[in-house]
Design brief:
Blueprint lengths: L7 E4 L5 E4 L7 E6 L7 E6 L17 E9 L2 E8 L17 E5 L4 E9 L6 E9 L10 E8 L4 E5 L9 E6 L5 E7 L7 E2 L4 E4 L5 E2 L3 E9 L3 E2 L7 E2 L5 E9 L18 E8 L4 E2 L2 H9 L7
Parallel strand pairs: 9-22
Antiparallel strand pairs: 1-2, 3-4, 3-5, 5-6, 7-8, 8-9, 9-10, 10-17, 11-12, 11-20, 12-13, 13-14, 15-17, 16-17, 18-19, 20-21
């Protein structure tokens, strides 16, 4: 374990161990896997202690899960930990699962999807991204984003640069007429994000719907995959490989849900993940987007 000050373990008195975090900082290597299924684990290296689980449901774990701490490569020490030791707190969440490819017959696009959990019972928001296969590295390009949201979400956001500050934010919620509201925003500090004109979202009628438990929207974003902060170098979301994305969640609806510039509360949960853009590439992207736009011409 390459950490200046490692967490310690202490006996639980029942043949296992509980986690005791002596300090935060350093690189802590943690393996978590479902009890009885050693294949369902993910290895994560973080600058602080976070919880990562595959498959992304905690209610199947009953009262405890198996955890392994890797003090050096190739060695895992399993021990039991109560879920109470990993209860969610402010600005904490369980990680999204690995990216998976999802084909949506309605929109005719294949998306790379990550499920970002915001509740320990397995509730999460599915973030899907589709792009063109013709895009080159270090270039700006349009992307189609499709999001599936449980009805209990007040508002949520996707950070295209993987952090709250100095990158395009797609903030969204369900409006007073039950229609999706997408608000393009930017934050220079850890304060309420303000409107951002550098990225625009075009909501598609196709791929936007709701039922008794979830609602979904599909939109074209222009300006989400490149930006510059404080006059610095242009940053890009690369069209291949992995890109760090992030999300935030709040159970509280905006004060004026019908307005895209409405004030929003501080988020309760946030997390980030490595989103696979290789599986997001579509050879028919331009044709599919043009069909979704209808009479409005798409300029790729």
């Amino acid at each position: 374990m390459s950490s200046a000050s490692a967490p310690s373990m202490r006996s639980s008195g029942s043949g296992g161990f509980t986690w005791e975090e002596a300090s935060r900082g350093g690189n802590v290597s943690v393996v978590l896997y479902m009890k009885g299924d050693e294949k369902a684990w993910r290895h994560a290296v973080r600058p602080s202690i976070d919880m990562y689980v595959i498959p992304p449901r905690l209610d199947t774990f009953a009262s405890e899960i198996l955890v392994g701490v890797s003090p050096r490569p190739g060695k895992r020490i399993p021990f039991h930990v109560s879920l109470d030791d990993f209860r969610l707190t402010d600005s904490q969440t369980v990680s999204a699962a690995e990216s998976v490819a999802v084909y949506d017959s309605e929109t005719g696009l294949t998306y790379s999807q990550n499920l970002a959990l915001y509740k320990a019972d397995g509730r999460g928001i599915a973030f899907r991204v589709a792009i063109s296969s013709d895009v080159s590295s270090n270039s700006a390009y349009d992307a189609v984003v499709q999001v599936i949201v449980p009805n209990d979400v007040g508002w949520s956001a996707l950070a295209w640069g993987g952090s709250m500050t100095k990158n395009p934010l797609m903030v969204f919620w369900r409006g007073s007429n039950n229609q999706p509201v997408i608000s393009s925003r930017w934050a220079n500090a850890h304060s309420t994000p303000q409107s951002y004109t550098g990225a625009t979202y075009t909501l598609f009628k196709t791929g936007t719907k709701s039922n008794s438990t979830h609602w979904q929207f599909t939109a074209l974003c222009t300006g989400c995959t490149s930006w510059s902060a404080d006059g610095g170098a242009v940053r890009y979301v690369q069209p291949s490989g992995g890109n760090r994305l992030a999300f935030a969640y709040s159970p509280t609806k905006p004060s004026n849900p019908s307005s895209p510039t409405s004030a929003i509360t501080v988020h309760d949960v946030h997390a980030y993940w490595n989103h696979d853009f290789n599986t997001a590439r579509n050879t028919n992207f331009e044709a599919a987007v043009q069909k979704l736009l209808g009479n409005k011409k798409f300029k790729a």
